[in-house]
């Protein structure tokens, strides 16, 4: 099976053209390929397939094999993948996801390339909820970007023991589903820092939908304006909320790491 390893701010996935490759069991394949010691290594598997509604369709599987609704960093990589490989020749690319169609646009300059994605309408459930864990009290918002996010405001993201507290938030009864949890620190009214605990993957270097949810929560709580620079462990994303359209735009890079080929004999059983 041929594949491409790509990353966006260190959020790395294995990308497979399912229009050419036959994938029998994507959940098992995601677990095996994502293993950083015995597989290719990554935060999960993303399949690129035919779509009757858009230019292409993407399916995203976490490293534990669970299927996710959408992936912001993955969206940008899919756009780059299909454009670079001439599957889609237009720089305006529509991508079908489990949560609907995402419109992307590739901007190319001489020494750099960024991709803009219209991530759609945010939805807020619980807001300014107080959560007590041991001796610590947190303020959290539940926000959906097509997938669930718990946005938690903290004084310092560097001081968070995310391996300990991340799983507790992921399964907290405040949230109706297992959530991706974003811990955010306010830098100023235009900038935040963020660390993320992703369901099915643990801490990752970046999360595109999480950055959207965090920027939106910061705006709703009057901590920032509508345009926010989000500092993640893997780099920066520019997030902007268009109040008139009630949609969130995300702009950031996407990078191809390498192309490869792997023998799947026995690996997808």
Topology, please?
Blueprint: E1 2-8, E2 11-17, H1 26-34, E3 44-49, E4 56-62, E5 67-68, H2 72-84, E6 92-97, E7 100-108, E8 113-118, E9 123-124, E10 129-133, E11 136-144, E12 148-153, H3 162-170, E13 180-188, E14 191-198, E15 202-204, H4 208-220, E16 227-232, E17 235-242, E18 247-252, E19 255-261
Parallel strand pairs: 2-3, 4-6, 12-13, 14-16
Antiparallel strand pairs: 1-2, 1-19, 3-4, 4-5, 6-7, 7-8, 8-18, 9-11, 10-11, 11-12, 13-14, 14-15, 16-17, 17-18
Major sheet attributes: 19 strands, mixed
**What series of H and E elements makes up the topology?**
EEHEEEHEEEEEEEHEEEHEEEE
pLDDT average, as an integer? Answer: 93
Distance between the termini: 15 Å
Low-confidence stretches: none
Q: What value does the Rg take, in angstroms?
A: 18 Å
Total count of helical runs of at least 4 residues: 4
Shape: globular
| Strand residues, percent | 35-45%
Which class do the helix and strand fractions yield?
A: alpha+beta
Determine the fraction of residues in helical runs and give it as a percent range.
10-25%
Overall number of strands: 19
């Amino acid at each position: 099976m041929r594949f491409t390893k790509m990353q966006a701010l260190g959020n790395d996935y294995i990308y497979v053209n399912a229009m050419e490759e036959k994938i029998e069991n994507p959940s098992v394949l995601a677990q095996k390929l994502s293993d950083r010691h015995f597989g290719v290594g990554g935060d999960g598997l993303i399949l690129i397939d035919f779509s009757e509604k858009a230019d292409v369709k993407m399916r995203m599987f976490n490293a534990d094999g669970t299927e996710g609704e959408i992936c912001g960093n993955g969206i940008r990589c899919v756009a780059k993948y299909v454009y670079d490989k001439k599957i889609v020749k237009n720089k305006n690319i529509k991508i079908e996801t489990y949560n609907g169609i995402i419109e992307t646009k590739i901007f190319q300059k001489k020494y750099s390339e960024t991709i803009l994605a219209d991530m759609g309408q945010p939805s807020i459930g619980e807001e300014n909820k107080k959560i007590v864990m041991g001796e610590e009290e947190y303020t959290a918002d539940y926000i959906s970007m097509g997938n669930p996010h718990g946005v938690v405001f903290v004084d310092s993201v560097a001081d968070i023991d995310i391996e300990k507290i991340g799983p507790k938030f992921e399964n907290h009864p405040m949230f109706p589903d297992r959530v991706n949890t974003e811990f955010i620190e306010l830098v100023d009214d235009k900038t935040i820092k963020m660390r993320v605990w992703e369901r099915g993957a643990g801490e990752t270097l970046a999360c595109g939908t999480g950055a959207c949810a965090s920027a939106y929560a910061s705006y709703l709580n009057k901590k920032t304006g509508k345009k926010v620079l989000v500092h993640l462990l893997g780099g920066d994303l520019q997030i902007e909320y268009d109040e008139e359209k009630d949609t969130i735009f995300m702009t950031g890079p996407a990078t191809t790491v390498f192309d490869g080929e792997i023998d799947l004999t026995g690996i997808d059983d």
